[in-house]
Specification:
The structure holds two protein chains of two kinds. By secondary structure, chain A is mainly β. Chain A has strands at about 5, 10-15, 20-25, 30-35, 45-50, 65-70, 75-80, 90-95, 110, 115. Chain A has a single domain, classed as Immunoglobulins (Immunoglobulin-like), CATH 2.60.40.10. Chain A contains no helices and ten strands. Chain A is globular and about 35 Å long. By secondary structure, chain B is mainly β. Chain B has one domain (about 5-115): Immunoglobulins (Immunoglobulin-like). Classes of the chains: A mainly beta, B mainly beta.
Chain lengths: ~120, ~110
């Protein structure tokens, strides 16, 4: 079946502008994650959605970052008043969440959105 | 707090020789451990995962990893490197002490020399 898709694949914006990044998870996956990957770095957790529960926003770096997930499916990550340090690849992942015994199911990643802030 | 450490940022091997990519994690009652691979300009792909079944886990492309609780390690190995294995590899941990989060290591860049 279709995998996780993200759009746009590349986004170039000017400092101070707002951007929206979109993620379409695999159908039926209840968990959705956003990560940021800066050049030469590992993945930095941003936010996590699980079903209808309140999202875990503990990874968002500032109040300029927000995300929503409509209808338990598509998610949008919004960055307001972008700064040059926001330049990175933003990755979305989804999974069939299993919380039995604290075990975690496999995350399936999208191709990412490369954001460049000039 | 960081819960996983990849001990080598870069590993270089000759084609046909064994590969060892090291990963240590913070102790957890029941960790789930994963290895992902990221080829240049490609998305992250799952290589293998450990979720408290057999301690020796076999993945795709001939890779395997062994969960060693006493050493809190989950090293990735392959008997014979292929040119196509050149990529970035990430060790990932999640479990009862990490909340909802998956913690990624900083990655190991594997170079395969012809």
């Amino acid at each position: 079946g279709a995998g996780v898709s993200q759009s746009p694949s590349n986004k170039v914006t000017e400092k101070g502008k707002d951007v929206e990044l979109r993620c379409d998870p695999i159908s039926g996956h209840t968990a959705l994650y956003w990560y940021r990957q800066s050049l030469g770095q590992g993945l930095e957790f941003l936010i996590y959605f699980q079903g209808n529960s309140a999202p875990d926003k503990s990874g968002l770096p500032s109040d300029r970052f927000s995300a929503e997930r409509t209808g338990g499916s598509v998610s949008t990550l919004t960055i307001q008043r972008t700064q040059q340090e926001d330049s990175a690849v933003y990755l979305c992942a989804s999974s069939l969440e299993s919380l039995a015994g604290g075990l975690r199911d496999t995350q399936y990643f999208g191709p990412g959105t490369r954001l460049t802030v000039l | 707090a960081q819960s996983v450490t990849q001990l080598d940022s870069h590993v270089s091997v000759s084609e046909g020789t064994p590969v060892l990519l090291r990963c240590n994690y913070s102790s957890s009652y029941s960790p789930s451990l994963f290895w992902y691979v990221q080829h240049p300009n490609k998305g992250l792909q799952l290589l293998l995962k450990y979720t408290s079944a057999a301690t020796l886990v076999k993945g795709i492309n001939g890779f395997e990893a062994e969960f060693k609780k006493s050493e809190t390690s989950f090293h990735l190995t392959k008997p014979s490197a292929h040119m196509s294995d050149a990529a970035e590899y990430f060790c990932v941990v999640s479990g009862s002490n990490t909340g909802n989060q998956f913690y990624f290591g900083t990655g190991t860049s594997l170079t395969v020399i012809p």
